[in-house]
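Our preliminary data section would be incomplete without showing what the modeling component actually yields. Below, a chain of 682 amino acids is followed by its predicted structure, encoded as tokens that our downstream tools consume directly.
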Amino acid sequence: MVEAGATSESKEGKAEQIGTATKRVEFWLSEIKLADKREESWRKRAVECEKRHGDERAAGEAGTRHRVNIFWSNTEILRPALHSNQPQPDARRRHPGRPDPGNLGRDGSTILERGVSWSIDENDYEDELDLAIDDYLITGRGTMRVNYEAETQDIAKPIPLTVGATGAWLNPEGAVVADKAVKKQDDGTAITEKMETVVLSQNAWLEHVRWDDLRLGPAQSWREMPWVGFRKFMTRDDLVDNFGAKIGKACKLSHRPTSTGFAKGTGDEDKNLPEDSFMRAEVWEIWDKSTKSRLFICEGYKEAPLKEGKAPLDLKGFFPMPPPIYSVKRPRTLEPTPEYYLYQDQAKQLDLLATRRQGLIDALKVRGAYDGSFGELETILAGEENKMQGVRNWGQLQEKGGLGKAMEFVPIEGIVGVVRELGVEMQGLIQTIFQVTGISDVMRGSTDPGETMGAQEFKVQFGSLRLKARQRKIAMFVRNGYRLVAEVVADLFTPQMLATVSGIEARPEVVAFLRKDKLRGMVMDVESDTTVLADDTAEKKNVTELIAALGGFAQALEGYVRAGIFPTEVVKVLGLWAMRRFKVSREIEDLLEQPTPPAAPDPKIIQAAAELKAETARDRAETKNEAAEIARKAQEDKIDALLRVAEQIIERERIAADERIAAADRTAQARVAAERPNPQPN
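Predicted structure:
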């Protein structure tokens, strides 16, 4: 590939290189436009959804319409239900039951897990995930990407020199070093210096990609994706820092800031300001899967790509992003559909009913007529509360039948009835929208107080089925993002950085294991806290069931272990198999996987066994029950076996103690003999 600014030996060759580079820029700019065209309808919808969610209205619309922003309400309900707490990474061996020489798998997974945890804690991952989920709920697609950067410094490394046979200075490889590069030390030795790049710090993090800043190649599935493009708006200083002064100063700034982002324009509206203070260049970062390369292009610089070369990250799926999350996934296409458009007709009808209802409410005013001969009645409704109104011709008013006859109001009962019916109709539309979105009344905190606990639990169980499907989708999205960070950490982090972020020593063999294996020998899972009350209740129930099951499990297998039917290792495997069905920590599994050392003989047990044997003998002499005699005989046999085992253990311990004492005596005698002075010959 030809880098920008490359030279050639002839003008013809240089022209050919520039032409090729220009064609590459034109090709990718046309690919970006085709991607825009493929998703044109969705992008228009996404803009409308953002305006609808934010209740942005056209000029003059706000005073004439009354809305029920059910779209915003649904989003606010679903967001905390899908992501209430930051998911925690969990790296573990794929096959924990297999041998793990040198604890490479266990130490590697621990380092990897802590490295990912450090990354998400240091880089405000939760805020970035919230933005991606907002895009998912509002526009229909949420996206994130992984980034990596390293802070380096060039330092001079001293290299000792020696004098060769010819008197020239030689480095350790035997190469001649020029005299001007030689430095004499105070002790007379000579060295030379070699510049070496040292990594000071490293960072890998996940970043939200706004829905409008992502372009995808033509594909029906993510597996078929040929390329992806990320858009960035850069200032002049950004261009110079990233692509050099020559390209950075030549690149045209074509976009100006607006209230919703950046829009294409010349900046003529702000002629009084310098261009570099507010204008931006639209730069596209393209990852091409077919060539395993990455390049930067800009419409304001068509001579060559701003930068190109091999992809900087060696990722399993090549692209620096997990598959996007889709609100409504359609078959054989990656063009999303915003969820709002599934119930937009009902939402518009709801707004129409709200507008009509408000118009009728505004019409519910007291109107009527009164007898003009009693002028004081005109202000009777305008007076203060609990204030009497005087009438001069009171007697005449009474003769005409009092106030009821002197005043008559326009009937409003019909309007009140219509307002009431419109309210009922609106509630019906809202329930229809909730059915479309799958938001149950339990999720909204709205339940019937007359329902039984069983009925409410039933509604919780089945009302959250669609929600759980969405939660699994979010968990998969998070897990895939964590895997990308884990790949970067395992592949690029230095042993010193791995030790810093994990808090444990990154042994060379463990680092080699991570470099070689990456994630093939381990799997990344996501453990997240519950998101709704129903899940919290179910989790507590699972914990209770786990404790009860472990108690019954241990009690049931105790007899089999004592009888020698089940060895201890079989019990451990069964216990791990059962516990992995529950959300338990890896530490518990690790403890169960550790070998159990043989217990030392307890003298109390031996004494108790002897006393039990004597007591059993006395009881046998006193009883004449044949059945009891048989039972006691069996018990005595067990006790005899126990005593024999205990005696064997004691004998082994006695022999071992004697051997240790003898060894200590031999060591002491040898030490005394060594310290005794040798006799002098006569």
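The chain has a mean pLDDT of 77. Residues 603-675 form one domain. Preliminary results of this kind motivate Aim 1 of the renewal.
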